[in-house]
Amino acid sequence: MTGISGAAVKQPGLSRWWQRMPQVDPRYLIAFLITLVLVAAQLRYHIVGGYSRLAVALLTCMATEALLSWFMRGRVVNLQSAYISGISLTLLLKPQGGALWPFALGAFLAIASKYVLQYRNNHLWNPTNFAITTLLLAAPNRISVLSHQWGNDVATNLVIWTFGLVIAARVRVIHITLTYVASFLVLNSLRAALLHQPVLPEIAPITGPMYQLFVFFMITDPRTIVRERRWQIVVAVLIALVETTIRFASDSGWPLPTAFNVGPAFLALAIVGPIAKAIDLRRSRQPNAGSGVIPRSAGSPATS
Amino acid sequence: MPFVAAILTAVRLDLGPARGSVDAARPGFALHDETAAAGIHFVHHRPTFDPKIANIEPHVAALGASVSVTDFDGDGWPDLYFTNSRFGEPNALYRNRGDGTFEDVAASAGVADLNRPGDGVSMGGVWGDFDNDGREDLLVYRYGYLALFKNIDGHHFRDVTEAAGLHRWMNSNGAIWIDYDRDGLLDLYVTTYFRSDIDLWHLATTRIMHNSFEFATNGGKNLMFRNLGGGKFEDVTDKLGLGSTRWTLAAAAADFNEDGWPDIYLANDYGPEELFLNDHGRRFTLTTAGLESESKSGMSVALGDAYNRGHLDVFVTNISERGYLFQNNNLRLNEMTGRTPRFRNMADAVVADAGWAWGAQFGDLNNDGVNELFVANGFISADSTKNYWYSMSKIAGANARLFEDARTWPAFGNSSLSGYERSRVYLNRGLAGWVDVARSVGVSDTYDGRAVALADLSNRGAVDVVVANQNQPAVLYRNRPDSANHWIAFSLIGTSSNRSAIGAEVVVESGGTKQRRVVDGGMGFASQNDRRLHFGLGRTEWVDRVVIYWPSGTQQIVTNPAVDRFHTITEPKR
After folding, report:
1. Model confidence over B276-296: pLDDT tens digits?
2. What mean pLDDT, rounded, does chain A reach?
3. How far is Cα B8 from Cα B15, in angstroms, rounded to an integer?
4. Hey, CA dihedral for A213, A214, A215, A217, is it positive or negative?
5. B317-366, pLDDT tens digit by residue?
6. Per DSSP, which regions of B459-564 are E strands?
7. Do B310 and B255 form a contact (C-beta atoms < 8 A)?
8. For A45, which residue in chain B has the nearest alpha carbon?
9. What distances in angstroms separate CA A66 from CA A29, A102, B467, B541, one per listed residue?
C-alpha cells in the first residue's frame, strides 16, 4: 500500500529499495546474487564438494588479482570481481577425485587472463569463461563442469531466476539475458525440427543451473560486452547461434573435442565474445582505456 | 610466461600421475580368463519392455546380470548362480565338479525357468539357509515377483514364495540376508529401484523415471522381511524405519559401529548413500556419518578392511566420464567407533575414477596381507561411434519435470553410453596409494561388467574372480597369486546364530596387523561372494590369533591356527 500524507507521497520500503538499487555499485548486486546462489546450493545440495575447493578458488583469485593489479597498475584494485570469479569457479568446476589443482589453476587463469589477454587495454574474455573453457580443452580427462549436481528442483531454480532477473533488470542488462534465452529457445527448437527430434530435450538445458550462471554472470559481464544496446542484442543472438551450430555438429557426430560437446555455451561465448569485443574496441573512437571502471551510464554491472 | 605455464601444467596434469609403474609391473598375481575351459558358457540377455519407453529401453534394460557364490550341494566346492533377464532365457546354476570345471544344473534343480511373462525377469540371487536345515536356500529378486526357493536335498529346490509370504511385486536390483534381530533366523532386506506399482511391460504412465539426478526420492520402497520361523516372513519395514524410497541399487550389512548389531549400508542411484544403524534389533536409525554431502549415483557396496585397521571400510562405485561427469567412487574409511562417528572418504584420483563403475569387491588377490579392489564397469556398449553422453547432458541438468517422463528423453537408438570400458584392478600399496594393474595382471575385457563375486573356486588358497556382464558372456578369471605368500581361510557354521553364519565377522591378527572380514549375505552389486573368509598373510608364516564375532553375540578366540589351509569352525554353545 501507498501511504499519503499531505502533498508528499511516502514510498513503501520495497519501492524505495527498487528506486535506489541502480545507485548501488552493480558489483555489489552481482556479488550478492552469486553469494545467494552459492549459499542456497550448498545448504540444499552440498554443491561445493568440500570447503577446501571454495577456499582455494577464492584465495587464488583474490591473491592473483591483488598481485597483478599492484604489479601492473601500481595499486590493488577492488577484489569483488575476483570474489565473483572464485565463487563461479567453485560452482562450475567438478574435477576428478578430490583434486584441488583445477581450482587453483582455474582461478589463476581466470584472473591472469584479464591482464595478459588484452586489446587496447581491455580484456576480451570473461575471466571465468576463459578459465572453464581452457581447462575443458586442456584437461578433459580431469575436469567436468556443473551438470545435475543442482538437484533439478524447480523451487531453487525459481529463486535464482527471480533474483537474477530482478537484478539484471535494475542494472540494465536484462535485454542481454532475455535475448540469449529467447534465441536459445527459437534456434534449438528449429534445430530439433531439422533433426526430427522432440523439442523438449533440446531446450531442456536452459532450465539447468549451468545456464543460470551463464546468463546471469558470463554473457552480461560489462567488461567484455560491447557498448551499444543494439549490438549487445546482436552479440547475444550470435552467441546462441554459434552454440546451436556447435550442438548441431555434435548431433551430426562431428569429431569435436570433448569440450564442445560438454559446454557448447561456454565455447560459443569464448569464440564470439572476444571477437565482438575487439571489433567494438576497434571501431570506438574513445576506447575505454582500462580504467577498471565501467561508466555508470553504460548501465552494466561489473562482474567477473 | 606463468600464464602459459599454467595452461601447460593443466595439459600435463590431464595425462595423469606418473607414479605406480614399478608396482604395476610386479603386482604379485595374475588373472587368467578360463571361462571356456571351466565349461561356463553363460550369456546374459537383457530384457525388453513396454514399447512406450522404447526410446530409452537400452537404459532401463541395462541391469540384470548377476552372480552369486554358494555351495548348494554341500560338497565343499563353491558353485555359481547367474541370472538372466529376458523372457524365456534361463538362469544358470553351475555346479563345481572340483576338477576346475562346472556343469549347469539349474534346470534339474528347478531354478532355471524364472523369466516369464507375468512373473518378471531376474535381476539377481542371494543365498542363505533361512530355515537352518544345513542347506543353502535361494532368493531371486526380479523386476517382478520375488521368488524364494527352499533347498530340498542339495540337488533340488522348491518354490516356497507364497507360503513364506513373500509373493510381492518389487522392481528390485538387490537383496541381502541379515539377522538383524539376532534371533538365529536370517531375515531378508530387499531393495527396490523403480516403484513397485510399475509393471514395466504394461505401463500405465511413462512418468517412471527419477525426480532428480542427485537427490531422487521417488524410487521403490525397500522392504525388510522378518523371518518368523516355520518358513514364514513378515514385512517389518515401517516398524524398523527402513523404508527408503531412494533408488537403491545395492545394500550390504555389517556391524560398522561394532556395537554387536548389524547395520545396513545402501548405495543409491541418483542420491546419497544411506547408513541405517541398528538399535538393538528394535529399530534402525538413518545416520549421516558424512555421507549426506556427496550425493551421487551409488551402484555397489563392497566391504573390506582397506588398510588393515581392523574395521570394515566401504567402497561405493559411481560414474565418471571424461569431460561430462566425475562423480568419483568413494573409498570410505570406517571411523564409526571414533569420537565423531563417520566415514571419511579417502578415494584418490586413481580409485575415484573407474569409468561407469558397477560391481566391486575387496579381496587379497596376491595374498600379501592387504586387500585389492576389483571393479567391473561399462554401461552400454553398442555403436562405438555414437555417444549418448551428449544427449544425456541435455537433460541431466534440466528441471526434473522434464526427465521424470521417460518419453522426454532423447532417443537412445544404437548409441553407446560409457561402453567398452575395461575393468579396473587396483593394487593396494597402503599409504603409497592404489594403482590400476588390470592390464598387467591379464584383465583386458571390455564387457559391460555388472556383478563381481570372489571365491576360491579350487580350494587352493587363491581368490578367483567371476564377473557377470550385461547382455554379454560371463567371465571367470582364475587367479595365480605369488606362491611365496601365505594365507588362511575359514568356513563358519552357526549354531545359536544362523547356520550360514551370515553377518559373522572375523579378525585375524598376524604380524602386528589386523584384518577384518564379514560373512557375506549379499554384497557388491547383484552379487554374493564365497561365504568362506580368505585372508592373505604375505610372508608371515603364522597367525597370532583369530577373533570371531558371531551374529548371536558370542565371541570366540582361536589361537595360532595353522596357515595355508581352510578351517571349519562351528559356533560354540553358549
Report:
1. 999 999 999 999 898 887 778
2. 85
3. 11
4. positive
5. 999 999 999 999 999 999 999 999 999 999 988 899 999 999 999 999 99
6. 464-469, 475-481, 486-493, 505-510, 513-518, 527-528, 533-538, 545-549, 555-559
7. no
8. B293
9. 21, 20, 55, 62
Residue B10, helix vs strand vs coil = helix
pTM of the model: 0.92
Work out the number of other CB atoms within 10 angstroms of the CB of residue B159.
17
The helix (H) or strand (E) run that includes residue B251 is strand B247-254
CA A288 to each of CA A46, A219, A282, A304: distance values in angstroms, whole numbers, following the listed order = 41, 19, 11, 17
Sequence-separated (6 or more) residues with CB below 8 Å from residue A178: none
Check residue A297 and give its pLDDT. 34
B511, B538 Cβ separation under 8 angstroms: yes
CB contact under 8 A, B398 and A207: yes
A265 to chain B, any CB pair closer than 8 A? The answer is: no
Structural element, H or E, at residue B68: strand B66-70
C-alpha B406: how far from chain center:
28
Distance CA B314, CA B557 (A): 26
Cβ of B323 within 8 Å of Cβ of A140? The answer is yes
Distances (CA, A) of B258 to B129, B261, B279, B338: 24, 7, 12, 11
For A235-271, b/e burial (b = at least 16 CB within 10 A) is bbbbbbebbbebbbebbeeeebebbbbbbbbbbbbbb
Q: Using CB atoms and an 8 Å cut-off, which of residues 118-147 of chain A contact chain B?
A: 134-136, 138-144, 146-147
Q: Is B59 helix (H, G, I), strand (E, B) or coil?
A: helix
CB B470, CB B524: distance < 8 Å? no
Greater confidence (A32 vs A106) lies with A106
Q: Positive or negative CA dihedral for A136, A139, A145, A147?
A: positive
Of B326, B348, B389, the CB nearest to A94: B326
* Cβ–Cβ < 8 Å for B129, B186: yes
pLDDT tens for B481-538 read 989 999 999 999 999 999 999 999 999 999 889 999 999 999 999 999 999 999 999 9
How many contacts (CB atoms, under 8 Å) link A and B? 177
A189 interfaces chain B, CB cutoff of 8 Å? no
Residue B211 to chain A, least CA–CA distance (Å): 8
Q: Cβ–Cβ contacts within 10 Å for residue A189, how many?
A: 14
Please answer yes or no on whether A143 and B11 come within 8 Å at the CB atom.
no
d(CA A285, CA B70): 83
CB A107 within 8 A of CB A113: no
Q: Does A253 sit within 8 Å of B400, measured CB to CB?
A: no
Q: Within 10 Å of residue B80's Cβ, how many Cβ atoms?
A: 26
In angstroms, the separation between the Cα of residue A99 and the nearest Cα of chain B is: 7
B373-406 in b/e burial notation, b at 16+ Cβ within 10 A? bbbbbbbbbbeeebbbbbbbbbbbbbbbebbbbb
Contact A152 B400 (CB under 8 A): yes
- ipTM for the complex shown: 0.85
